[in-house]
């Protein structure tokens, strides 16, 4: 197979999959999380169904703003990476995925896993167990997507796409 050196490589399916999966994990899920927490806070704090003393653990305004800011920033980086130019966005994207994996784990996943409230503090609460399961599932998804992004974005087809051209085949010179 001869490769035309002037032909620009197309976007590989693996790059598309890496970007889409990482956008789901690092943008859509956190934004949906913020939406549902704000919706619950709104429902519980206004109207006749108001609950006195209602509190969702970890629902501070600073955490919500951090989650919104990181999610939207990642979405912007993913869109620029999707375009394929500039070439260094491949490295920025991989670094951002790794950084957000660590930040989301430390800031949003570990607190529900490390909390061990007593029965007198929480009462009979089934939400605590659900929050732990959700945190574990998000941790697994974050790890899988991060590993895939690092692996695929460093493969030859992804490098050729972001470079904008194919490298000459070293075996072709030996065959001639």
Question: Describe it for me?
Answer:
The protein is mostly helical and 176 residues long. It has one domain (13-165). It is 72% helix and 0% strand. It has seven helices and no strands. It has helices at residues 13-45, 61-83, 89-114, 119-122, 127-153, 156-163, 170-175. It is elongated. The model has no long low-confidence stretch (mean pLDDT 83).
Any descriptors?
mainly alpha, 7 helices, single chain, 72% helix, 176 residues
Topology:
Elements: H1 13-45, H2 61-83, H3 89-114, H4 119-122, H5 127-153, H6 156-163, H7 170-175
Helix pairs in contact: 1-2, 1-5, 2-3, 3-5
* Fraction of helical residues: over 70%
SS class: mainly alpha
Number of strands: 0
Q: Could you give a short account of the major beta sheet?
A: none
Q: What is the domain tally?
A: 1
Number of helices: 7
Q: Averaged pLDDT, please?
A: 83
Low-pLDDT runs: none
Globular, elongated, flat, extended or rod-shaped: what is the shape? Answer: elongated
In N-to-C order, the SSE pattern is: HHHHHHH
Cα-to-Cα separation, first versus last residue: 14 Å
Compact overview of the structure:
By secondary structure, the protein is mostly helical. It has helices at 13-45, 61-83, 89-114, 119-122, 127-153, 156-163, 170-175. Helix 1 (13-45) packs antiparallel against helix 5 and helix 2 (61-83) runs antiparallel to helix 3.
